[in-house]
Amino acid sequence: MTSAAEQRAPAGEPAAGSGQPAAVNGARRAVPPVPAVWPGAPTPLGARFRVGPDGVAGTNFALWAAGAEAVRVCLFDEQGRETRIPLTELTHEIWHGFVPGVQPGQRYGYRVDGRWDPWTGARWNPAKLLLDPYARAVDGEFGLPPEVYGHVRDWPDQSVADTVRDERDSAPYVPKGVVVHDDDDWSDDRRPKTPWADSVIYELHVRGFTKLHPGIPEELRGTYAGLAHPAAVEHLVRLGVTAVELLPVHQFAHEDHLLRRGLKNYWGYNSIGYFAPHAAYAASGTTGQQVGEFKRMVRALHAAGIEVILDVVYNHTAEAGELGPTLSLKGIDNRGYYRLQDDARRYADYTGCGNTLHVVRPQVLRLITDSLRYWVTEMGVDGFRFDLAAALARSMHDVDMLSPFLAVIAQDPVLRRVKLIAEPWDIGSGGYQVGAFPPLWTEWNDRYRNAVRDFWRHALPDVREMGYRLSGSSDLYAWGGRRPYASVNFVTAHDGFTLRDLVSYGTKHNEANGENNRDGTDDNRSWNCGAEGESDDERVRALRRRQLRNLLTTLLLSTGVPMLVAGDELGRTQRGNNNAYCQDNEIGWVDWSLLQEPGWRALFDLTARLIALRHRHPVLRRRAFFSGRAQTADGLRDLAWFTSRGAEMTEGDWYAPAATLGMYLSGRDIPGRDARGAPVVDDSFLAVLHAGDRPTGFVLPGPPWAERYEVVVDTSVEEQAQPPGTVHRAGAEITVPARTVLLLRVA
Fold first, then answer.
1. What is the pLDDT of residues 703-713, one digit of tens each?
2. Which of the residues are catalytic?
């Protein structure tokens, strides 16, 4: 068998800035001398440009690496020549030093030396250039050649490959951190500070939202500058959303299995730099310019009254498991950053991505909270949606709502004031935690998604679940002082079918992902309206558009915080792909040409009108749960439910199969007061949801509920008439068309 030494390329140590000539393609070149390094300071962590002793400008480097034996900061010039500078100061497990003369724009990385003992979790390898976890800009893109692995990836016996150290230099193959100078005080910015109850969230991908937009200059498409462009902002304003939730914009890397298939990670749920805006989304440059471009995007959205929420992935990193690459944390202090199994060669994986950050450890918790505060205070963002948040709430093994992570967030003076959204599950045992997160947190409510999908495909056994979801999910959130806006209601998200595909496909079609259609969920709760995929049958197409109107209307009339997905309001399709995480192409991008088609334009107009209706009427965005009790002598309650006979629902009605549900919202019994202390009073509404495939009669409730009703929304109609609409007398029986939502205002 070939020996381990023969499997490794030489480390190329003379090229390390030792002051000795180095060989490059057979030639010799001079390496710059190592500059002086002063002691510097252990805080703040990362590379910070500042004025040092005697007014000398330079950069302070500080890296936590508890078990390391030596740390060198490596500087790279424009030709890629490397200068290695030892950091000899060690304070509280932080290696640090101030290097005079190092200016913003300087590219750098770290080499960290220590024991190689994978059986105990020690994986130090100074041949690997490591990205600073606190790097605020990253220049270059991650590929995954064998040189970037700390172990010999192609070792003949793969069962022990991760235990054989690879001595080849990874520096030519990995991106570098960039020193960034930030003196922006945000004094010219005005955050919208939209109350939770008034929020309408719009989930979008920076690249996918802007890539095909005809109003954005071609050179700005797919970038932060593209999202800041007036053409992009105008669409958001016309739609009426109050916040954009950006799919991950932390610097991320692509997985090996995708690169081997000629694909890339498009969504970005594979973070490697928690302080750096993803460089590929920058139009202005990647040696620090991406930071300013991101800030200008935030300012442009704030100026339009739109908040910026980041989807963040702190549960795992792009370094995967023991067979993954060595890019940053794994080579800095593997045991300090990651959860390991009892067999310390292996990683505890609660994420399905190969590793899990060990958030219980103080330094890992500091990394995450420092990152969060940085994005709020220095990058201007307004909140975060935490991917697989249950993994962050695990103490040692079990999910713990008193965990250090949640406790720190709750008392942090910066973070407790921003919007916090949990994806309240992970893949580990006991990981499903919907309804369990503490006050301050809102949650993605997948029970809302499932109930609404099932109702409109007529698959619910009764209407109990639907009643809870329409009225704010009090069964999940009415505890501990939580409010209805703890529920982020959604029918679709980036993960799964688009809204149009939900009514066009009965099964997933993920062949383009190269995994033989094995990836993606099979639990889609979809209905294709009688034909699989695109159809030329106008009856099928018309039914699908009606179902889209039903789903959007239900979402925007429900109590809680609605979340839309970019493009759903204009009929975007992924051609049946319900896991488009690797589709950086027309499958994953928003098709803006749909707005030129009358049917899809009408869908956009309806969505905008429903959002405007929601903004005008506080009864549709309550700040407290319904009581269901009569507040006055006439017996009128803040919430009442009706059968198609016009009678209030009994206990038995809730347990009986039904396709029709009437929901009465009283505008005179809204808890709370306005900013001046006056009672909040609004119109009252009756919503009738009918999922049956045939028309049904519905008797409109009489006094004390109403004397007359005016039709505001009728989803059976393609082009919505503007109010005032048809007026019906209370007590009259009206015909509700098949598969329709009627919204009637009490006149």
1. 999 999 999 99
2. 387, 423
